Amino acid sequence: MKDFMLLFHSSPNMNYQPTPEEIQNEIKKWQDWIGGIAAQGKFKSTEPLGYDGKTLHADGSITDGPYVEVKEMVGGYLICTTETIEEALELAKGCPIFDIGGKVEVRDVMLFEN
């Protein structure tokens, strides 16, 4: 078994103001999808990412970000354990991010042995 990180990309829509009911429906979609992965014994962890951040550059400078002007942002991640990347892609197919035109990037997690 190998770990894979699913990164959730979307285009921010700062004008969208969801109702409390829409927010609850969206939360339920994510809970159901993640719960399905957990029920298969393939879930490791997940977290949404906030809007505050800074970037430390090689020259020591620090810039603010992420910016709302960006065309795409990473909104969160999920780590799952599967046999192959193809299996991780199958899990990703049910992700609610697709409902808003987003995408899921699937990356293997490299393990370094001491």
Word description of this protein:
By secondary structure, this protein is α+β, with helices and mostly antiparallel strands. The protein has a single domain, classed as Alpha-Beta Plaits (2-Layer Sandwich). The chain has 2 helices and 6 strands; from the N terminus they run βαββββαβ. The protein has a 4-stranded antiparallel β-sheet with strand order 2-5-1-6, with helices on one face. Strands 3-4 form a two-stranded antiparallel ribbon. A hairpin with a 5-residue loop joins strand 3 and strand 4. It is flat and about 40 Å long. The relative contact order is 0.34. The mean pLDDT is 90.
Spell out the blueprint of helices and strands.
Layout (H helix, E strand, L loop, with lengths): L1 E9 L9 H20 L3 E6 L5 E3 L5 E3 L8 E10 L2 H8 L10 E6 L6
Antiparallel strand pairs: 1-5, 1-6, 2-5, 3-4
Keyword list:
single chain, 114 residues, alpha+beta, Alpha-Beta Plaits, two-stranded antiparallel sheet
Briefly summarize what is shown.
The chain has 114 residues and is α+β, with helices and mostly antiparallel strands. It has helices spanning 20-39, 85-92; strands at residues 2-10, 43-48, 54-56, 62-64, 73-82, 103-108. The chain has a 4-stranded antiparallel sheet with strand order 2-5-1-6, covered by helices on one side. It has a two-stranded antiparallel ribbon with strand order 3-4.
